């Protein structure tokens, strides 16, 4: 379970750093460029310590494809934070658990047990409760652009998570560093080109925050792949997603003094119950 816990901690750090960037009104694309640069450097270091026997082209191409998906998802998430608020954006990203769970059941034939099925249902109820809790708390109507970005976050992150499962099931563990380098190296190239074309200003504060973001970003993928080798995807994804929601909510209350209503409290209780069942 240590890999699941570390995935939750890293992913929660990502959400909090994106929240801080939103508060400081930093450029999203510059933040992502610095983030992927740091992740690329770390993945290069990891690869130098775990050199695979062969640099297989399919892994590199697959990584470049996932890297593009990561950029789109991250960009959608940062825009969703600005248009719909941090709470709804984070909840939408966690609701993406539906995508890899369903795909794992349909494509990979991974089925949960009875108690785990109840826990999975509880996980979905938790996320839905959080969604309505945050929507009601916001007190106004989100525009179409906000819903567009929220939907993009849900689909993009969901497919990205399932790609991690595809790698774990189709390739060997010794090629993990090459896969991560392909993802984050290509993502850095994509975001750098976009930043240069759009002539964004590379301010020091946003770059520093982006470099910091790159650390939990790469390790969240690293630990997620490790967790998927230990447990079924239909177990890992719900636990990780609910864990992120619970931890993010608690830290938002402590750091930014965000308030939680009755629906939010109920969501926390159901979420804890769901994690217990999924862990059995």
Shape: globular
**Whole-number count of domains:** 1
The assigned structural class equals mainly alpha
Count helical runs.
11
Secondary structure tally: strands:
0
Mean pLDDT: 81
Radius of gyration: 18 Å
Describe the structure.
With 280 residues, the protein is mainly α. The chain has one domain. It contains eleven helices and no strands. Helix 3 runs antiparallel to helix 4. 51% of the residues are buried.
Put the structure in a nutshell.
The protein is 84% helix and 0% strand. The protein contains eleven helices and no strands.
Question: What is the strand and helix layout of this fold?
Answer:
Blueprint: H1 2-23, H2 28-49, H3 57-84, H4 86-95, H5 98-107, H6 114-138, H7 144-170, H8 176-197, H9 204-230, H10 233-255, H11 262-279
Protein traits:
280 residues; mainly alpha; 11 helices
């Amino acid at each position: 379970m240590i890999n699941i816990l570390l995935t939750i901690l890293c992913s929660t750090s990502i959400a909090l750093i994106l929240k801080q960037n939103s508060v400081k009104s930093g450029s999203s694309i510059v933040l992502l460029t610095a983030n992927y640069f740091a992740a690329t450097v770390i993945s290069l270091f990891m690869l130098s310590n775990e050199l695979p026997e062969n640099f297989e082209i399919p892994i590199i191409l697959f990584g470049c494809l996932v890297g593009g998906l990561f950029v789109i998802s991250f960009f959608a998430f940062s825009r969703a934070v600005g248009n719909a608020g941090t709470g709804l954006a984070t909840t939408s990203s966690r609701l993406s658990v539906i995508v890899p769970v369903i795909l794992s059941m349909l494509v990979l034939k991974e089925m949960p047990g009875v108690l785990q099925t109840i826990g999975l249902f509880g996980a979905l109820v938790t996320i839905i409760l959080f969604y309505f809790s945050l929507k009601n708390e916001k007190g106004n109507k989100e525009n179409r652009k906000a819903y567009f970005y929220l939907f993009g976050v849900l689909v993009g992150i969901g497919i990205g998570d399932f790609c991690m499962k595809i790698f774990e099931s189709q390739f060997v563990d010794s090629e993990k560093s090459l896969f991560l380098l392909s993802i984050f190296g290509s993502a850095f190239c994509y975001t750098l080109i976009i930043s240069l074309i759009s002539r964004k200003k590379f301010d020091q504060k946003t770059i520093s925050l982006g470099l910091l973001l790159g650390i939990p970003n790469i390790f969240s993928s690293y630990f997620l792949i490790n967790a998927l080798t230990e447990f079924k995807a239909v177990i890992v994804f719900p636990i990780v997603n609910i864990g992120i929601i619970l931890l993010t909510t608690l830290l938002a209350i402590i750091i930014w003094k965000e308030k939680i209503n009755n629906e939010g409290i109920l969501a926390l209780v159901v979420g804890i119950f769901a994690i217990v069942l999924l862990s059995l």
